[in-house]
UniProtKB/TrEMBL annotation:
Belongs to the binding-protein-dependent transport system permease family. PROSITE patterns: ABC_TM1. InterPro entries: MetI-like, MetI-like_sf. Pfam families: BPD_transp_1. It is found in: Cell membrane. It is a multi-pass membrane protein. One of its GO terms (biological process) is transmembrane transport. It comes from Ktedonosporobacter rubrisoli. Residues 90-288 form the ABC transmembrane type-1 domain. This is Carbohydrate ABC transporter permease.
Amino acid sequence: MATMTTQSHTHSVARHATHSRSFLRPGDVLSYLFLIVSVMVTIYPLAWMVVSSLKPGGEIATAPLSVNLQTLSLHNYTTLLSAVPLWVGFENTFIVLLIQGATTLFLCPLAGFAFAKFNFRGKRFFFIFVLATMMLPPVAMIIPLLFEMGTLNWVDTYQGLIAPGLVNAFAIFWTRQQISEVPDELLEAAKIDGCSPFGMYWRIILPVIRPALAALAIFTFLGIYNDFVWPVIIINSDSLQTLQVMLSNLALQINNAQPGLTGHDAWGEILAASTLATVPILILFIALQRQFIRGILAGSVKG
């Protein structure tokens, strides 16, 4: 009996191994190779930037593709942070992210909830108006916004930097599409139990669309973090410059702070600053990657 059991187990293992070998088809091998090559091509510039930020300036110019472990150091970082107040750009960007991002993630889902689940006069007109604003190029709004900020005396202030981006048309459209997938029966049951409209949003809608909100948070973060045109127009003071504006003027600031600095050394410090600016984005994506992917795929498959 034991012999028969052993033979049966052996045949089962053999069939499983045969099935595993037959499962990996040539097409799958090509797909994996393509993905590996794509990942390497995508990651290589980022890896080169990080490694080059640790190299001496002369070595970046003479041997940009080689790596000498003995010459790698944090010299570019220490010199940069001692010469340029880069932390000011991080601080201002964080303030804008905190206020503008939090307001967007609070107000826009509420507007999306209203457009998705409530009927009111002018609903179709207002939603089409919101969509129409998405079709305007942002550059076309700069002059009207600048006149408006000037009338309010908000030029070169945090208010002028933050206020125009508090409500985002894409965020309203995104959350409206996600909330539309929530069954109306759930809201009707909550209404029968005496739940208020905001209570329905907080207790039913918000937990369901949490992956979509995570994806929206990443989109909002990237949009604010990488914004350059509006901050460079509305801000004149060095103390209110955001990170992207500081990075655009970094070479000039480095040369002014360090007279006689060679161009090679300046590039080493610029790469160090770029590496530091990339870290927050990587941390956010790594922390929310699962929710981001779920949010992107939300609504693509209907049961």
